[in-house]
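To assess whether the prediction recovers the assembly geometry, we first specified each molecular entity separately, as shown.
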Amino acid sequence: YALSGSMWKKRTLTWSIQSFSQSSQLNQLTVRTLMSYALAVWAVESGLTFKEVDSQNQEADILIHFSRGYHQDTYPFDGPGGTLAHAFFPGEHPISGDTHFDDEETWTFGSKDGEGTDLFAVAVHEFGHALGLGHSSAPNSIMRPFYQGPVGDPDKYRLSQDDRDGLQQLYGKVSNSPNGKPTRKPLASPPLPPALPPDSPSTPVPDRCEGNFDAIANIRGETFFFKGPWFWRLQPSGQLVSPRPARLHRFWEGLPTHVRVIQAAYARPRDGRIILFSGPWFWVFQDRQLEGEARPLVEFGLPPGEEVDAVFSWPLNGKTYLIRGQQYWRYDEEAARLDPGYPRVLSLWEGAPPSPDDVTVSNTGDTYFFKGTHFWRFAKGSVKSESDSPQPMGPKWLDCPAPSSPKTTPKTGTCNCHCELNQ
Amino acid sequence: APIPRAQDVSLGVDWLTRYGYLPPADPSQAQLQSLEKLQDAIKIMQRFAGLPETGQMDPITIATMHKPRCSLPDILGAAGLVRRRRR
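The predicted structure of the complete assembly is given in tokenized form:
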């Protein structure tokens, strides 16, 4: 463990929540209760007493805030992911002990690992700072700097030995009960509410590191990875918004529930609308809201019943490319019709895989074809893939480890395969 | 070892500085960080995070730098404020 070098000289500390999360699915009572339990975790090992005071009371030792972005201290928040929270070490300064949570995180209680960020686990960590502990590298310590996922039932959670040692170095040991375990003091807070219902028990959450996405699109600088009724978002900085995928229908408001797969997606440059494709249909979204009804792909000029594997807008000429199998069409957004002479064979994109999962253009202007677990990069304006293509997607895009097995390069070029039923 | 992208090195230096592994740049000296100091800082970060101590901006190190975390530095800079104890 590591000590910050400061500690409280009193043994009863007051706390209050000054601002609650604006966007969290946790209600205020749940947040208050979780804070109370998180403080009790430290109290039970040290004999410290924590007393909640009225939220109007700005004199409390530990003031808790949910804040966004810059919030008048030296640790601005950075939106979803990245930094989650911080707290100030004990002292005489008004901000000493104060604890701030990034309001733009998806704070959860009772959810599985990967489903948002467990507020109780983060609160326990931050209150460790508020009591004078620094970050620890001990494997089981709650004071490790990285978020480790939920820590289980708040009522049963107990600090690791490393954390107890650090705390007791500062505040001494509490007298234990006869069975050797500390006795939890009765809490003044209400009992914990039941955990939120699981997101969707019927559909297993896919593993992003397995690749094989249905669609990938650059939407306003963020890369969206669609797989079944889920999607992940990668921020322009390269950070995943969350390792847990979001539910398709919770985000894309109005998308019919029977649509379980997005086969292609792109952001239309001329008006910023986002187009999602599934089967022979497409849907137009303004931001997250659906505009109108499902529309047939024939509106793009494609043959009736035709579907698409990939769609992207190429900044070089402003045209939209629609790919199916080994052929593609080029659509003129201004004229609202296909360019003549299409479809053409995809081999024009030298080195590109047939039937790509999707194609998208990065913020730097490079074009990326995705298929399976690999990507092919085409430098800005080029139709020839880079010599190091294909590369595994995981390490570059999805915070996944590089494949441990030797690199297997999917063959590119035309495919002339025959598959028999018994093979 | 694969050569890290300039973007990753830049992100790494920023990250290592923010969390206390590298001293803040001194504008008055306009001094570049030395490669040795950078590698030492990466090793300390890797030790702290329980990663293999390669001193390189390898993919697992870069991935760790992208993990959600607390905003406070891991290495507290003010002299005399930190006392580390090992069991």
